[in-house]
Amino acid sequence: MSTPFDRPLTGGVDGSLGQDGGVSSLAGDEERVVESALRPHSLHDFIGQPKVARQLALVLEGAKRRGRPPDHVLLSGPPGLGKTSLALIIGSELGTSVKITSGPAIERSGDLAAMLSNLAPGDVLFIDEIHRIARPAEELLYMAMEDFRVDVVVGKGPGATAIPLEISPFTLVGATTRAGLLTGPLRDRFGFVGQMEFYEPAELQQVLRRSADLLGVELTEDGSAEIAGRSRGTPRIANRLLRRVRDYAEVEADGRVTREVAQAALALYDVDVLGLDRLDRAVLEALVVRFGGGPVGVATLAVAVGEEPNTVEEVCEPFLVRAGLLARTPRGRVATEAAWHHLGHPLPRGGALLGGAGGVIGAPTTPGASSETLFDA
Ligand SMILES: Nc1ncnc2c1ncn2[C@@H]1O[C@H](COP(=O)(O)OP(=O)(O)OP(=O)(O)O)[C@@H](O)[C@H]1O
Ligand SMILES: [Mg+2]
Questions:
Q1: What are φ and ψ of residue 317, in 5° steps?
Q2: Which residue among the candidates 10, 84, 171, 300 is catalytic per the annotation?
Q3: Which one of 2.40.128.90, 3.40.50.880, 1.10.8.60, 3.40.50.2300 gives the CATH number of domain 201-268?
Q4: Taking Cα atoms as reference points, which of 180, 151, 144 lies closest to residue 72?
Q5: Where is the segment annotated Disordered (predicted)?
Q6: What pLDDT, in 10s, does the model give residues 33-77?
């Protein structure tokens, strides 16, 4: 019998990127296998995220001292920053087992009820992509999270009865790339919300050193700095680039990953100095060239690059925004001055661009200024 627990340990939003060996932050199938080998297994091993890690350590320690399962935990942030890793670490720090499922896998509330009633006391239930859970299941989850009880409805129509079912005290760990899509009541039931941030280059270098040790790769200091700088603040990407650079080092050089080797390899794989991959660049190019810098709605932008709006929004945009290349405004996406520079295009004359003097961040919007639908965020 197939259960929602059958899902592999990692995964992100749907969409198949990286077919060109690119640097999207989503994990492909082959990658999941490698990832589990590189996953940190304790908070001690977990690099970076100082705030979330410290807060979480306190939550877990407090719960351990009281001998009770900790509050429910929500982890939010872009793909590849370590949400799944942290969820599994919560289980291992507590010494309990982690049952894994995901929002899209829970189609009927009955699936969830069965899962909940199978939990042993203190278990961790990890629901990945929790923002995609079906509404009836979500409502069932409210009661389970609050009272460790669910009502199982038996029968249909006027004769239907709700049978209350006790469940063991458990800790729900939810992960989401889109915290904004969670309903208020669901969000309110999490006692701790960890907002994962992009990693600093120095932290990514630490991740790379650890991975290089595990993979048996010789990595020099400047080699790791080169890779870290192009990893878009994301450990998954750092690890992926390391593997590609290792291939290059073994085939084209003496196996050592130095700065020169990393530069040559990354140039070959179309990873630019900021770490933008082909899709990121395509999005920026479309925004700058086809839409004159915007504003343009994300749906339109996605069509222009032949991608799903979700992918553009969840995978490309967070980093483009963080890198100061793109801004989200109420009227749509806008390229900043830095984007024109980065792509090597001359700035349009007289245009009021974001990021320059007289930038338009927070500028009042002109409703109806364009015939396009710009409000799709
Ligand atoms: N803090 C960290 N220290 C070391 N390695 C890390 C860390 N965070 C993530 N990684 C590495 O990055 C990989 C991806 O992390 P993980 O699967 O936990 O990300 P995620 O946030 O769950 O992504 P998604 O949203 O796609 O599910 C892991 O396999 C691990 O190797
Ligand atoms: Mg994950």
A1: -60, -45
A2: 84
A3: 1.10.8.60
A4: 144
A5: 1-28
A6: 777 888 999 999 999 999 999 999 999 999 999 999 999 999 999
pLDDT tens digits for range 336-359:
998 999 988 888 765 555 544 333
With a 6 Å cutoff on the Cβ, whether 12 touches ligand 1 is: yes
Is residue 147 marked as binding? yes
Average pLDDT for 278-304 = 90
Q: Which CATH number fits domain 4-195: 2.60.15.10, 3.40.50.150, 2.60.120.590, 3.40.50.300?
A: 3.40.50.300
275 secondary structure, DSSP code: -
pLDDT for 23 equals 55
Q: What is the CA radius of gyration of the chain?
A: 23
pTM score of the predicted model: 0.81
* Packing angle, helices 135-147 and 109-117, rounded to 10: 30
Interval 148-177 mean pLDDT: 89
Ion ligand 2 residue ranges (Cβ < 5 Å): 83-84
- Measure the CA–CA gap between 16 and 40, rounded to whole angstroms: 25
Ligand 1 neighbourhood includes 131 CB (under 6 angstroms): no
Instruction: Please report, rounded to a whole number, the percentage of residues in the chain having pLDDT higher than 70.
Output: 85
Q: Identify which ligand lies nearest to the alpha carbon of 32.
A: 1
Annotated catalytic residue: which of 99, 236, 240, 246?
Answer: 236
Pick the CATH number of 276-377 from 1.10.10.10, 1.20.120.1760, 3.40.50.300, 1.20.1730.10: 1.10.10.10
